[in-house]
């Protein structure tokens, strides 16, 4: 019999309701390990409880809350929450087959690195989501904008590098939130999420909520969403070479099949050009009507 760990009470990051959730989460985790016949049901309920618990934790404290209160690993917690988030799809599979095990369900929601296929994106950008920006490029974005107020498509692990003042994870559903301030966006590399996040950024810029933004995507010049973003940008950096992204499990991996661009939205294209000119070719975006306007803004300095 697995023993439940002692629940630790922390002064920061917890709402009163979160204290009892830890014991319930660990009970579901234990049941998942011991009861093979109904393991998937327990895993789904554990995922539901983890999502509920995270909603009651102060932003940025989730990793520490898990370390203090959850008897499984952070990776196991992510698997549970991914299962719960895709419950409808899993239930459809269960209805269609006589037996649908927790192993099959976990495989269904697994990231490519967990299947031994560390692919980031295909030519059409329909690859997987969890690939993070190397520190080199994050530091350039911080320098160009003077800081990062919001990273709306990220995770706790990636924030060890980005260090945004606020950030939204998959569980936070950044697409449903209001964005503001200086935004750095490396959207999920899976469609339709990529174009949805790019569209959200364009909408928030148009509404005046976002004052400065840098968008990192593949240079998918054959797509409407890429051209829409460039049409609103003040400047665009076409990188020399390709970025070697990384994730928590695979570390640094091979670069995507095509190159990347950084689009800058804001009032300081000259500063962006100076900073990002170190890593690529910077040209005016659609927000500047002509090269004359680009030169007047200092973009050729």
What can you tell me about this protein's structure?
The chain has 2 domains: 18-110, no CATH class; 135-296, Rossmann fold (3-Layer(aba) Sandwich). The protein has 12 helices and 9 strands. Mean pLDDT is 79; it is low at 1-16 and 112-128. The chain has 301 residues and is an alpha/beta fold. The strands form 3 sheets. A 5-stranded mixed beta sheet has the order 3-4-8-5-9, sandwiched between helices.
Number of helices: 12
Widest beta sheet: strand line-up: 3-4-8-5-9
Number of DSSP-assigned strands: 9
Could you name the CATH topology of the largest domain?
Answer: Rossmann fold
Distance from first to last alpha carbon? 69 Å
Instruction: State the helicity in percent bands.
Output: 40-55%
CATH architecture grouping of the largest domain: 3-Layer(aba) Sandwich
Query: Roughly how many Å is the radius of gyration?
Result: 21 Å
Overall outline: elongated
Average pLDDT, rounded to a whole number, is 79
**Beta-strand residue fraction:** 5-15%
Largest sheet: 5 strands, mixed
Number of domains: 2
In the CATH scheme, the class of the largest domain would be: Alpha Beta
Poorly predicted ranges (pLDDT <50, ≥5 residues)? 1-16, 112-128
What string, H for helix and E for strand, traces the elements in order? Answer: HHHHHHHEHEEHEHEEEEHEH
Class per helix and strand makeup? alpha/beta
């Amino acid at each position: 019999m697995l023993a439940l760990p002692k629940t630790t009470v922390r002064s920061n990051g917890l709402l009163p309701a979160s204290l009892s959730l830890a014991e319930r989460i660990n009970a579901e985790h234990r049941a998942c390990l011991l009861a093979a016949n109904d393991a998937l049901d327990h895993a789904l309920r554990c995922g539901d409880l983890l999502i509920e618990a995270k909603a009651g934790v102060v932003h940025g404290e989730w990793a520490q809350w898990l370390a203090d209160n959850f008897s499984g690993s952070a990776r196991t917690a992510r698997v549970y929450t991914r299962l719960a988030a895709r419950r409808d799809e899993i239930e459809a599979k269960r209805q269609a087959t006589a037996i649908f095990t927790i192993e099959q369900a976990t495989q269904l929601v697994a990231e490519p690195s967990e299947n031994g296929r560390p692919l980031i994106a295909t030519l059409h950008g329909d690859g997987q989501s969890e690939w993070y920006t190397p520190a080199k490029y994050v530091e350039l974005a911080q320098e160009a904008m003077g800081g990062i107020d919001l990273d709306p498509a990220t995770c706790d692990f990636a924030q060890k590098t980005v260090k945004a003042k606020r950030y939204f994870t998959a569980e936070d559903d950044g697409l449903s939130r209001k964005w503001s301030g200086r935004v750095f966006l490396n959207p999920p590399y899976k469609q339709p999420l990529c174009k949805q996040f790019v569209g959200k950024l364009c909408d928030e810029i148009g509404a005046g909520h976002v004052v400065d933004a840098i968008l990192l995507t593949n240079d998918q010049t054959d797509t409407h969403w890429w051209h829409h973003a460039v049409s609103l940008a003040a400047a665009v950096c076409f990188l020399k070479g390709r970025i070697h992204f990384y994730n928590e499990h695979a570390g640094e991996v091979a670069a995507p099949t095509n190159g990347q661009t950084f689009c800058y939205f804001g009032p300081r294209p000259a500063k962006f050009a100076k900073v990002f000119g170190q890593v690529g070719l910077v040209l005016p975006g659609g927000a500047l009507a002509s090269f004359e306007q680009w030169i007047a803004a200092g973009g050729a300095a």
